[in-house]
């Protein structure tokens, strides 16, 4: 209706000077007119210019006086020609007594004695009320009157916004409905030839693009950045660094293809540090450094086999070897990256997962330091219920498995493994004899599951992950 009224009016008239007046004349709400004008202006059917006007509107008090009369007149009328006792007048007009008498005295309409109130004039006009009613009706009043009403807070100013409107370059008296989509029906009926399509608005803002989000796996472990990060950007590793350097014998079941993914292409590594390889062979075969070794025939071919690293300790062994090549200085390293195991996938196991590896090398380190570091690490993450269980690793002695209590599953869950690296591992590398290395390897997924109350590992990692989980989870719950 508003659209027809506007377009129709402009067919016969040059201009709508003031949409406010126009709305009133047509009996259409101004808001509706404004909405239609905005849309028609957007399509350039109209050319609309803003108009702003300062308008006076009545405050609540102003409205009241417009209806019942100003308090001074109300009060004056309550005073009979023969006068009245103050007390009685107050009882008669309790709500406006004070303000009414003030104004009436100021206007010299009444006289207030100690006890009596008397009229000073016979008749009064309610100019205040008249002005208020005039403003209510949109009529103009003198600026002196405006000031008076403003001072008494009976009116307040409001900016009124409207338009003056002319025909736009695309003006038509009746807007055709333009199509926004080409439909199957349009094609079948053939009416696509006649349809007028809506023009593309290349200036319209598109859907906001979605930004990247951090996976909770990453979020949970950002705190470990106090350590130096190890370079873990090689998923493919040789058996040598993954196993042999770690004093893991070549017959160890973990080195079986049932547990480890070996590479077909390239199946072997090309270079290894030969003199170090020789010392590793020696320590496996016959020991040294106070060890008896395993007493088996160590095979180079076995060490050369490429695999997908089964733990990030492969990287630790490379780092420690590199560290041993220079003058020793205490170090702490960490890494967070992917490892691979040929495992049956279930609620708590994946064939690909992530490990956090940490190690500290220094003189005089003990198992107590390791326990302390692990307690500190997990309690920062809100996991203070920890248990350590003696364990065995070929490369650590002593070794401890780490368990944490999962409130959701109501049981202890293994989250990692740790220990002190053996001399059979450290000394062939060339590290000083009095240097100890405490180290731990943790599944990244397990503690994250505990922290986030996730009881299926596949909800956290892999193709079944719900991406909205990643977006929903807050960055940090860590207390550093
Ligand atoms: N590499 C071990 C694992 O994969 C973890 C570990 C790291 C244990 C360092 C001891 C020392 O479970």
UniProtKB/TrEMBL annotation:
Reaction(s) this enzyme catalyzes, per UniProt: tRNA(Phe) + L-phenylalanine + ATP = L-phenylalanyl-tRNA(Phe) + AMP + diphosphate + H(+)
Pfam family, one: PheRS_DBD1
Keyword Transferase in record: no
Biological process per Gene Ontology, one example term: phenylalanyl-tRNA aminoacylation
UniProt cross-references to SUPFAM superfamilies, sorted A to Z: Class II aaRS and biotin synthetases
GO molecular function: ATP binding; metal ion binding; phenylalanine-tRNA ligase activity; tRNA binding
Cell compartments where the protein resides: Cytoplasm
Chief localization: cytoplasm
Annotated organism of origin: Dorcoceras hygrometricum
Keywords attached to this entry: Aminoacyl-tRNA synthetase, ATP-binding, Cytoplasm, Ligase, Magnesium, Metal-binding, Nucleotide-binding, Protein biosynthesis
NCBIfam families found in the cross-reference section: pheS, PRK04172.1
Lineage: Eukaryota, Viridiplantae, Streptophyta, Embryophyta, Tracheophyta
Listed EC numbers: 6.1.1.20
Aminoacyl-transfer RNA synthetases class-II family profile domain location: 308-474
Cofactor: Mg(2+)
Quaternary data: Tetramer of two alpha and two beta subunits.
Name of the featured protein: phenylalanine--tRNA ligase
Gene3D superfamilies: 1.10.10.2320, 1.10.10.2330, 3.30.1370.240, Bira Bifunctional Protein, Domain 2
Family, as annotated: Belongs to the class-II aminoacyl-tRNA synthetase family. Phe-tRNA synthetase alpha subunit type 2 subfamily.
This protein's GO CC annotations: cytosol; phenylalanine-tRNA ligase complex
Top EC class of this enzyme: ligase
Record keyword Glycosyltransferase present: no
CDD domains, per database record: PheRS_alpha_core
């Amino acid at each position: 209706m508003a659209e027809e009224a506007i377009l129709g009016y402009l067919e016969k008239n040059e201009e709508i000077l003031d949409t406010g007046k126009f709305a009133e004349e047509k009996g259409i709400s101004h808001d509706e007119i404004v909405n239609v004008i905005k849309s028609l202006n957007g399509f350039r059917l109209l050319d609309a210019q803003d108009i702003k006007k300062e308008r006076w509107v009545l405050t609540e008090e102003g409205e009241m006086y417009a209806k019942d009369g100003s308090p001074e007149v109300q009060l004056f009328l309550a005073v009979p020609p023969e006068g009245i006792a103050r007390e009685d007048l107050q009882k008669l007009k309790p709500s406006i007594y004070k303000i009414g008498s003030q104004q009436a005295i100021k206007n010299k309409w009444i006289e207030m004695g100690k006890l009596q109130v008397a009229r000073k004039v016979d008749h009064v006009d309610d100019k205040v009320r008249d002005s208020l009613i005039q403003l209510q009706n949109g009529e103009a009043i003198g600026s002196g009157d405006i000031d008076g009403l403003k001072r008494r807070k009976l009116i307040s100013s409001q900016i009124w916004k409207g338009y003056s409107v002319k025909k736009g370059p695309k003006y038509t008296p009746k807007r055709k409905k333009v199509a926004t989509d080409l439909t199957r029906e349009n094609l079948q009926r053939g009416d696509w030839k006649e349809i007028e399509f809506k023009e593309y608005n290349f200036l319209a803002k598109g859907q906001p693009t979605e930004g990247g989000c951090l996976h909770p796996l990453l979020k949970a472990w950002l705190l470990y950045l106090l350590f130096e990060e190890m370079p873990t950007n090689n998923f493919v590793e040789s058996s040598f660094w993954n196993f042999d350097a770690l004093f893991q014998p070549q017959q160890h079941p973990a080195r079986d293809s049932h547990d480890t993914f070996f590479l077909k292409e390239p199946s072997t590594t090309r270079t290894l540090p030969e003199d170090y390889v020789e010392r590793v062979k020696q320590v496996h075969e016959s020991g040294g450094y106070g060890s008896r070794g395993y007493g088996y025939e160590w095979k180079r071919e076995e060490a050369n086999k490429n695999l997908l690293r089964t733990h990030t300790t492969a990287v630790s062994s490379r780092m420690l070897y590199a560290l041993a090549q220079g003058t020793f200085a205490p170090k702490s390293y960490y890494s967070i990256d992917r490892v691979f195991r040929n495992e049956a996938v279930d609620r708590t196991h994946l064939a690909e997962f992530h490990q956090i590896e940490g190690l500290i090398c220094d003189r005089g380190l003990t198992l107590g330091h390791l326990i302390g570091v692990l307690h500190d690490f997990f309690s920062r993450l809100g996991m203070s219920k920890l248990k350590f269980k003696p364990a065995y690793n070929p490369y650590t002695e002593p070794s401890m498995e780490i368990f944490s209590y999962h409130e959701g599953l109501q049981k202890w869950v293994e989250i990692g493994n740790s220990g002190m690296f053996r001399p059979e591992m450290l000394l062939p590398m060339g590290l000083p004899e009095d240097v100890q290395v405490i180290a731990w390897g943790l599944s990244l997924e397990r503690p994250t599951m505990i922290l986030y109350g996730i009881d299926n590992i596949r909800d956290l990692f892999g193709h079944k992950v719900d991406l909205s989980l990643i977006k929903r989870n807050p960055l940090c719950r860590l207390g550093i």
